[in-house]
Amino acid sequence: ILLHGDAAFAGQGPVAECLNLSQLPGYRTGGTIHLIINNQIGFTTMPADARSSAYATDVAKMIEAPILHVNGEVPMELYWAAQFALEFRQQFGRDVVIDMYCYRRQGHNENDQAAFTQPHIYKLIQGRETIGQIYKKQLVAQGALSQADADKIEQDIWDRFEAGHAKMLELQEKGERSAFSGSTAVEQMPYTHAPVPTGIGRDLLQHVGKVLTTVPEGFNLHPTLAKRFVPRRQEALQNGGPIDWAFAESLAWGALLTEGHQVRLSGQDCRRGTFSHRHAVFYDSETRARYIPLEHVSPTQAKFCVYNSFLSEFAVLGFDYGYSLGAPNMLTLWEAQFGDFSNGAQVIIDQFIASAESKWQTPSDLVMLLPHGYEGQGPEHSSARLERFLQLCAGKNIIVG
Fold this sequence. Notes:
It contains 14 helices and ten strands. The protein has about 400 residues and is α/β, with parallel strands linked by helices. It folds into two domains: about 1-130, no CATH class; about 200-390, Rossmann fold (3-Layer(aba) Sandwich). Strands 1-2-4-3 form a four-stranded parallel beta sheet. A four-stranded parallel beta sheet has the order 8-5-9-10, with helices on both faces. A two-stranded antiparallel sheet has the order 6-7. Helix 4 (about 75-90) links the parallel strand 3 and strand 4.
């Protein structure tokens, strides 16, 4: 379930990116229920200045998602819409949108005086009863509740709010609330530069290497791969080197898989690799059938997932960051097509990857692969701007390798 504001749903690019993401292999969530709290204003900006479409939800038409426009002052209509949205999501595994038309009684924040910019609208809002009072009167008028019962329910709700606020103040005064209170995060060992035993036995290395360079009988591998790519790896394996980056990472992943560690690789063109260096997936030149060597390392191996993402950095890196939180025992890797392109996801890097553990006590083991080099491919294809990542280093939050 995602909550949105109307201005953000229409205006923020990641919304459209995530809608595009919603039905792609490797990025599905089984459907998302989008609830738009449509205050018909974005801070001080009116809808006429906030979007080119009639509705804030029109962007969801790109995936033909059902869109329910609901009056926020009628709770039972919202109840029906919520039930429908849930049943649709469960039945079809697709996104559905509830556009709840309502209003913002106060300003955008404590310092905002909405009457400065929308005086007429806010004069009407201030003279209108709250939704709670309107619904309470309806229930009493319909005979669903007596006035006394309605008053008691209202008072009970306020009492719970007051008790919660008092408890919060009490915890603050006693100093009993630590940074990790209520967190489900697993405490990590202090980072150290001491060497870690990561080596694997020669026999296992040879086995994984053989799997990576074996093509099924009758599989029509592309001639260039059959004559150059695979033999070069076989020769390196036989002679003990040289082993390039792509072969080394595949060997490492294969070893992890045999040890029961799942691996997920995601990014633009990452199955082949931007530079035709990885070839994690072989394609039959005649039938287009696929063969993924790292799925055949061992009968008892862990799962290997490799997905070509759509052309996005922001949404995909955000998804993979979230994936790393949900699957902490899985090695989750996101690869930029070129390291430079990571700046298309700078918000995810700044506000989540670099700082989430400090802000919300949510550690992540996400790995970002940022291939780059001075190879004559021009601006925006030569530097991953590692100096920016170094600037973000603080409190052992990230490791720049």
